Amino acid sequence: MINLKDNENYYPGGLSSISKDKKHAKLSASGSSKWLNCAGSVEAESKIPNKQSVYAEEGTLAHELADICLKNYINSCALNNDYKSPLDRIGETIKCESDKKVISTVVTEEMAKFVQEYIDYVLAHETKNSQLYTEDRVDFSNIVPDGFGTMDAAILDYDTGICHIFDLKYGQGVPVDAVENTQAQLYALGFYNELKCLDVIKSFKIHIVRPRIFNYSSWEITLDDLFKFGEYASKKANEALSPNAPKFQEKNNVNGVMLKLLVLLLKSILKILFYQVLKI
Fold first, then answer.
1. Alpha carbon of 241 to those of 23, 26, 277: distances in Å?
2. pLDDT number for residue 12
3. Which of 114, 61, 125 is nearest to 86 (CA)?
């Protein structure tokens, strides 16, 4: 791992008990699968009150725990300090701001175990010549108007030119896969804006980590293909922001989207059943 003392992702002075507010863009990366396929969804959803469920808050706090631990790991590597893993933080209270309010929880053994699995997966991709980023805010406004987002974690491997993008999905319900994942591709475009001056990145490898259902998927995309996606996303973003954006999915996309969701759902069910059988 590269020494990070001279890097902006080095965190001297420890951690604040309350992190920066988790803000969201109008055309968010997390909601991109909707507005890319249904331009009118942005206007339709603007009339619905944005209220976080208890499950969403739990996911936000799990991300906060992961970020705290990864920042602490970066500091421990740079300063030779002790590293506190999620398992070392069981019983501690963590807080963060989300949707203009402070949410908090006591770290349970279950949360610590699953966040630890995510962190182990991320750190397994480190090399002697790589750099780790965590909760990095990326700007892809050159693709999507006012587009920005917060990437969970990334590792840039200077030897291979592969930039790994990691997305922790703490929930158990909605199927998510790395293949052609639009949220992660937008993050990759924003991260490339930040690091293109290094002239190192040759491709991006997207990782979706779902530790609570033992699901890990990855998918690699070349820069050329990523830029093609960026052109497509830019066109769709402008459609979504137009006053008369159509409130329906394109016909040629509907069957493909439904089939993909069905396949992901079946995969998730089979994996859950497999691990339940192992426990018997």
1. 19, 9, 48
2. 34
3. 114
Rounded to an integer, what distance in angstroms lies between the CA atom of residue 183 and that of residue 165?
11
- 3-class secondary-structure state, position 163: strand
User: Which residue from 101, 71, 115, 94 is spatially nearest to 209, judged by alpha carbons?
Assistant: 115
Chain centre to alpha carbon of residue 179: 14
Return the ∠ at Cα 259 (arms to 253 and 261), rounded to 5°. Answer: 100
- Do residues 65 and 107 lie in contact, with contact meaning Cβ atoms separated by under 8 Å? yes
Rg (CA), the chain: 19
* Beta carbons within 8 Å of 206's beta carbon, 6+ residues apart: 165, 167, 178, 181, 184, 185, 188, 218, 219, 220, 221
Tell me which amino acid residue 237 is: A
Residue 29 pLDDT exceeds 70: yes
Task: Break the chain into its structural domains and give their ranges.
Answer: 32-279
Q: For 236-253, what is the mean pLDDT?
A: 73
The pTM score is: 0.80
Distance CA 72, CA 94 (A): 14
- Secondary structure string (H, E, C) spanning 70-109: HHHHHHHHHHCCCCCCHHHHCCCEEEEEECCEEEEEECCH
Phi, psi of 137 (to 5 degrees): -80, 125
What is the distance between the alpha carbons of residues 85 and 68, in angstroms, rounded to a whole number? 9
The H or E element containing residue 154 is strand 148-157
The per-residue pLDDT for range 182-235, each reduced to its tens digit, is 999 999 999 999 999 999 999 999 999 999 999 999 999 999 999 999 999 999
For the chain, first and last CA: distance in Å?
41
